[in-house]
Amino acid sequence: MDFGTHMRMGHPLVFSLIIFCSIIELSISAWLTSRFTARHNYFSLAERDRTCFLLFTSAWTIVFSSLYMCFFYLPGTVLGSVISHIFSLFLTWIFWTAGATSITTALSGELNRNTPSVFAYPVQLNALQGFAWVTEALVTFALLAVLIRGIIAARRGDGIRGSLIT
């Protein structure tokens, strides 16, 4: 099988996984944000603000990943091009890397159910951190696959404005 066949099968699969993990992340971060807003029981402003940032990042990812799943099937358009995918995925990757790193830093990287915690919702914060890293890894994989496809398209003569699929 050539790379185009892998891209036709893999793109919807990877983007579906990204959307699925982002929906879970959105649910956790929205619940935590509502609790922090209503009860003011966050440990620090960093914990509260970084949870809100992950809420935004999840919503961003759901919207743009859904759009790019549709754009993938419109290969003749600018929005279905390699450069468009690279730009969108790179921005999404920056958001997820910043969000996952910042929530890990806010939680001191050692959130554990077995140790006494000063955090109000340690289980939910642990899940928030875990899904942030999983989604970041999926976006990294998608970005690398699109970059490889862009290099192949450039060598083929289509340039980076060419389609992801041939």
TrEMBL record:
Keywords: Membrane, Transmembrane, Transmembrane helix. The chain crosses the membrane at residues 12-33, 53-74, 86-107, 127-148. This is MARVEL domain-containing protein. The lineage of its organism: Eukaryota, Fungi, Dikarya, Basidiomycota, Agaricomycotina.
